[in-house]
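Morning run. Coffee first, then this:
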Amino acid sequence: MADGIELRPFDPGRIGEVVAAWNAAAGRAFPLREALFRQNTVLDPHFDPAGASLACEASTGRVVGCGLAKVAREPLGADGLPMEESRDEAPEVRQYLVCVAERDLKTLLPLLPQLANNLPAAA
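And here it is:
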């Protein structure tokens, strides 16, 4: 684990902080709004809150990153569309990890194995 950073359970009440961390890191090129983040996480039927975590500064609790888990609840193509709508004939993906926001990639990378270990077993 990165020094001074701890993983905490994902809390939908802190989405504003996650979006702020994203925008601090990538907002100039890829600005993010809370509504879009909600649409692609907590409102997405593939979102798995059990596999989601917040990366927070241990001393302040400030959100500096977020790891999200999604579990494909139906076969998806590589383009993310259901297979019958997909242009790609990619193999089915049952589980994947999406790292959403981090102001410092060097801080996030060491957390990836721990985030992956926190994912529930694939169905």
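The longest strand covers residues 63-71. Good start to the day.
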